[in-house]
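Now read these lines:
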Amino acid sequence: MSTHTPLSGKTAIITGSNSGIGLGVAHELAKAGANIVLNSFTDRDEDHQLAKDMAKEHGVEVRYIKADMSKSDDCRALIETAGACDILVNNAGIQHVAPIDDFPVEKWNAILAINLSSAFHTTAAALPMMRKAGWGRVINIASAHGLTASPYKSAYVAAKHGIVGLTKVTALETAEEPITCNAVCPGYVLTPLVEAQIPDTMKQYNMDRDTVIREVLLDRQPSKQFATVEELGGTCVFLASDYAKQITGTTISVDGGWTAL
């Protein structure tokens, strides 16, 4: 257990956090002393075991609450069920790639609901709790695609641009209060999902692993290195700390220079 616990006594809710970036962020916030609420749309034994294991590892309280981020009532119920929300990390997201004229309407609707509207609903439910507590942090996990675009990702890019806009409005509405709202914009992050794509991509391009990573996956990431979930978690810990009291309504890129291009 870490001895440096600046977030001790705080409760952090992280949406879409039983794997990938969300889980990595949850671990870093737990290391910093925050009690954690994990979330996804499933309700399996392994989801609750994940919470138990994290609690044991970091010596904090950890709960898992099922809520479907495509449903507005579930989004708000997640916050109410948690009972406290000092730190809200809106992380849940899905992706689909297709040209605009072939983009399935149901995929567009799902991506906008999960990647954008969920953050509106959770924030709306969390702000009264933060105001009552006299402190709060809203951290929206956007993307490099919240600041730039790629072809065939219309819904994702639109949603992530929307998240950046929502972040600014939230910050302005809370500017005179001890509440901040910022967006973290990752580039490519090495998650189990990305890791699983590497072998197929190697076959597709007839390249070795290192070449696929450097020339295909990280083509737009000048550092030619993945960001890690730990780095993103550490960025969230910083934004939740007193050092970041005057950082609000902005984006922090963790993208190896992608958006500098």
